[in-house]
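G., the chain you wanted modeled:
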Amino acid sequence: MSKIHQYNDLISFGSELIHFPASNNEHPHNFDLSKLSSILRDKEINEVCNPSVKEIEQFYELDNKFGVIVKDMVFERHLEKSLREYEELDKSIETNFTGKYYLFVKQWAYSLKALYFYKTNDFEKAKALTIESIALVDYLMHSGTYNLNTRCFELIKNVAKVYLKENKQEEGYEIIRNLLDYIFNGNYHSNLIATFTKHKVFFEETPILREDYGLSIFIEILENTIFSGVVIGNSFLPNQWFIKLEIEVDTLEKQILYNFIHIEQKRQEKKYNEYIDAIHYFFEQEYSSLFDPLKVYLLFNYYQLTKKNNSDGEWNKEEIVNFIQNKIIINQKLKEKVISNL
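Predicted structure as tokens:
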């Protein structure tokens, strides 16, 4: 295909956005996976840790108080006050819980204190405490609490986010990529820290829950990539954390991720005829709004590509803005962020 034809096809895709379907509000699963995960987790914790009725009651009371502190820390409201409140709750853990149930409660406490250090930019302490929490969950996993795997994934992701916040992009993105490779493909990587990831028996447990959590991690990191990346200027959004990720397709959700990655690979390889076909097919499909961040990401990079091939890139801006405003359902802040940086 000649450069002129490729360029014309790029223009054609932008002009056809008006004809592509809007997202829908349907979730890929018609039942509450988070509720199912909690039920299975609690069942295993009770069997393995054998807590007393009093310990269970105290944990739920503690969990509610932890939740308030987490919100204050996330929004950076009264961080030092939140730390003091945490320390009081931590003392109650030492006196009110024993055995494996103590370890289950303590891993939550470690991760909460890690959040404080993350917010105060003490990155080494944040990583150290998160790794301590991973070690406790890993021990409980080997004891038979298989459905703590998503909790461990969350903690591993948090380690990656610490690296990213301290501008160690290579280390952070490598952890994210390897975590997703484990979740979707079962491949072991030593930088995931948790030793249960070496053993297939853990990978084979509750695959629907595992892969649904992997999907949520992928979308969360992609949203963060968009928020942080669109302000750079004329650059494409970063893709190093997923561009080499291989996904074995056996579900619709994994097919969508595979197609998304394929589009970015072809753009990066400058195989524009394949890129145009792939992105055209992607936008022809009516997907759940869950996948809206993928569309926004692709549209931003498409706009950057057309600008690089045309000194006046304003010709397709209106079509992209209209599509994002009228056919994308995701949060308004993300939409505004992208539109303002086109």
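Residues 305 and 311 are 11 Å apart (CA to CA).

Shout if anything looks off.
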